[in-house]
Amino acid sequence: METPTFSINDMFSIAGQVAVVTGGGTGLGKAITNAFAINGAKVIITGRRLDVLQKTANDIGGDIICIQGDVSTKTGVEDIVAQISEKTSVVDTLVNCAGVAIPFRTPIQDHNDPDSVEKLLAGVIDADFEKQNAVNINGVYFMTTLLVPLLRKSSNPNVTIIASTAGILNTRMTGSLTYGISKAGAIHAATLLAGRLHPLKIRVNCICPGVFPSDMTGKNSGGYHFDLAEPMRKAAARSTLGRPGKPEEIAGPVVMLASKSGMYMNNALIIIDGGRSMVASINDGIRLPEDS
Ligand SMILES: NC(=O)c1ccc[n+]([C@@H]2O[C@H](COP(=O)([O-])OP(=O)(O)OC[C@H]3O[C@@H](n4cnc5c(N)ncnc54)[C@H](OP(=O)(O)O)[C@@H]3O)[C@@H](O)[C@H]2O)c1
């Protein structure tokens, strides 16, 4: 056994890695891309909007390759993987960050009023399930499984799935039931994929973020700054830290999972929510004062 150095640079190094970040052009994916690029990894970022990817690559600098593609179908992912294969023969880290959140179509004011709840639930249509599942579950499955040949060439192959606390908690005031169900699928996909891929030495872990400022939760006001939508601001306040997450607070754990420090982690479920799980659940907006 080699003698450990315990040097931060050794324990958490991702230098020289090839990382693929889906949804790497915006929000959480952009922060993760930034952390990998600034620390010496080659980062391949994907998304449907090439101009958004290219702007992110220019803003960050470093070794970033942009690949346009849609993860919501198997053929879309096959096309993305074909493009990745033209750029590299090995992938060390895959971060499945692309995701979509569709709100309820018939928003209500009072989540305890029986008539309002009936209206809320009845407003859901087939497409809400289909679109979110296609990106949040199918996209994760196909990106992970179709990248296996390139992941197998790595000495530390690892996959991180960005799911959501919405897939675990009984949050009522933010998001939608259909989003939460799709994220629950993503969480269990991590477990099942970790189980299947262990003979190939590919680790699969899952991160469930709480509230982080992004296009999904607010309006961009320049760079990494976002004005959170009001329900999200309140949700972030209903955490023990009383604030939303910061870009480094999502990027850091992903870097850890990909580095030597994460090599003993497989099928880990990491909740990064400022303690929101302790106070959300069915209490979300019911028993606690909104701004407490
Ligand atoms: N922000 C939060 O508070 C929060 C909390 C929990 C979990 N999450 C999860 O974190 C991940 C990132 O979200 P975010 O908050 O950073 O929001 P975001 O900025 O809207 O990021 C979503 C990304 O996914 C990409 N994407 C969406 N549909 C796609 C498709 N069909 N094919 C390929 N790429 C697609 C988007 O790029 P294009 O539109 O260009 O394709 C975009 O870059 C998501 O999985 C989200 O569910 C976020």
Automatic annotation (TrEMBL):
UniProt KW keywords: NADP, Oxidoreductase
A GO MF term: oxidoreductase activity
Pfam hit, one: adh_short
tRNA-binding in keyword set: no
InterPro entries: NAD(P)-bd_dom_sf (IPR036291), SDR_fam (IPR002347), Sec_Metab_Biosynth_SDR (IPR052178)
Keyword Oxidoreductase: yes
Superkingdom, natural source: Eukaryota
Protein family (similarity comment): Belongs to the short-chain dehydrogenases/reductases (SDR) family.
Protein name per Swiss-Prot or TrEMBL: Putative short chain dehydrogenase/reductase
Lineage: Eukaryota, Fungi, Dikarya, Basidiomycota, Agaricomycotina
